[in-house]
Amino acid sequence: MAIEIKDLTKRSVNYSQWYNDLVIKADLAEQSAVRGCMVIKPYGYAIWEKMQRELDNMFKATGVENAYFPLLIPKSFLSREADHVEGFAKECAVVTHYRLKNDPEGNGVVVDPEARLEEELIIRPTSETIIWNTYRNWINSYRDLPLLINQWANVFRWEMRTRMFLRTAEFLWQEGHTAHATKEEAQDEAIKMLNVYADFAQNYMAVPVVKGVKSANERFAGALETYTIEAMMQDGKALQSGTSHFLGQNFAKAFDVKFVNNENKLDYVWATSWGVSTRLMGALIMTHSDDNGLVLPPKLAPIQVVIVPIYKTQEQLDEINGKVTSIVDNLRNMGISVKYDNADNKRPGFKFADYELKGVPVRLVIGARDIANGTVEVMRRDTLEKSSASLDGIELTVKNLLEEIQNNIFKKALDFRQRMTYKVDNYEDFKAQIEKGGFVLAHWDGTPETEDRIKEETKATIRCIPLDAETEDGVDMITGKPSKCRVVFARNY
């Protein structure tokens, strides 16, 4: 049962607590018995399923195929690519034994000390190593390339500070791993998948994003380049919402993945990897939702339309049921997900609050008087505006309204980002603006030393160097060294 929304912390009071409250009260997820892990509840998982379905179709349209690789990775695999293991070593969970036994002293079960593994196994923090060890058996010739593989899976990274969806020890994601004959093909693939992510974020999630390349400090462990989409949340913080990596030949060399090229010469293959995770759920919540609960983009809402009857007698309900049946059928035939909630165990007011809390984009309310007048009350979740519409042709009205809501919440988020994006040219202004939040565009001299200093002194990081950044002569705000473009700084999740 949903909790009354009057208990939802207001964003202006405590944005972080508002987020945590909303995840729980909208029935998206809850804490589990395992520290740092969450239980994704059916309503939350239904949103993730819609994300999966759309992304999976987009991947397959580019030629990608799905496969599945083991959860457990031999420890020795992680030692083969030095940068990679250094990047993940502190986050790895290690399996050391393969058997339990009853405690001789009667205290339940204990690890059997005689069942120690010859080689420890790592619960995958990411799958580059096990996949590239497999690719060695799959790739022999340029005719085997490109190899475009994706897997939907869970991964585990030991996190000390967790927040549901945004940062949990175990999370769900997809990880694409592709192999190519040339450097250019691999680089093109990495950019192509970044564009897929940006397309999904903007056209399905209604979340505007900045596409860019990460600095060396922020690069994925083992990559030559990391491309990213960065979104802005309502508190002005950035959220990295998807990454695509050009891996060069690093993993091919680490796992000896060679192929005979079209000149009949042996060469190492070129690689990419790319992924998005259940962190997108956090982006969805924090970009659009308000003090009344979730605001979901219609394209990803599990229930796009809810219909609630208002009646006093069984006779009135029977009349409404008869009218609504055809409306429900017509909406479903149009590909619109609809729920008719005529359950008699909850009052209409409770239903209204519950569906607002859960972010259902459109609510229709029909009473006996409405049927007599040929009208229906329509409420849109993004603005909470109510209006009266004709019952005749209500299906087309709803279809158009869903499109309008999708476009409106994207525009609202884009307008907010534009208002919260600033250009600064000196360090004092930079520090003052970072405290207020938002994206700060400033010149940077390209050195990790300057980047480290800014992070230490302001908690802001370089989110990306925008791919569409205009050439602009300037100087670094700290060192005075020359710079050719502005980069995006922000505090981030």
Provide an overview of this structure:
The chain is an alpha+beta fold and 493 residues long. It has three domains: 5-288, Bira Bifunctional Protein, Domain 2 (BirA Bifunctional Protein, domain 2, 2-Layer Sandwich); 298-408, Rossmann fold (3-Layer(aba) Sandwich), CATH 3.40.50.800; 421-490, 2-Layer Sandwich (Translation Initiation Factor IF3). Helix content is 35%, strand content 28%. An eleven-stranded mixed sheet has the order 3-9-10-16-13-12-11-24-27-23-22. A five-stranded mixed sheet has the order 18-17-19-20-21, sandwiched between helices. A three-stranded antiparallel sheet has the order 4-8-5. α2 (42-61) crosses α6. The radius of gyration is 26 Å and the shape is globular. The mean pLDDT is 96.
Task: Lay out the secondary structure.
Layout: H1 15-25, E1 29-31, E2 38-40, H2 42-61, E3 65-66, E4 72-74, H3 75-78, H4 82-88, E5 93-97, E6 100-102, E7 109-111, E8 116-123, H5 128-138, E9 147-156, E10 170-180, H6 183-203, E11 210-213, E12 225-232, E13 238-248, H7 250-254, E14 258-260, E15 266-268, E16 270-277, H8 279-288, E17 305-310, H9 314-333, E18 338-340, H10 348-357, E19 362-367, H11 368-373, E20 375-380, E21 386-390, H12 394-419, E22 421-423, H13 427-436, E23 439-443, H14 448-458, E24 461-466, E25 474-475, E26 482-483, E27 486-490
Parallel strand pairs: 3-9, 17-18, 17-19, 22-23
Antiparallel strand pairs: 1-2, 4-8, 5-8, 6-7, 9-10, 10-16, 11-12, 11-24, 12-13, 13-16, 14-15, 19-20, 20-21, 23-27, 24-27, 25-26
Helix pairs in contact: 2-6
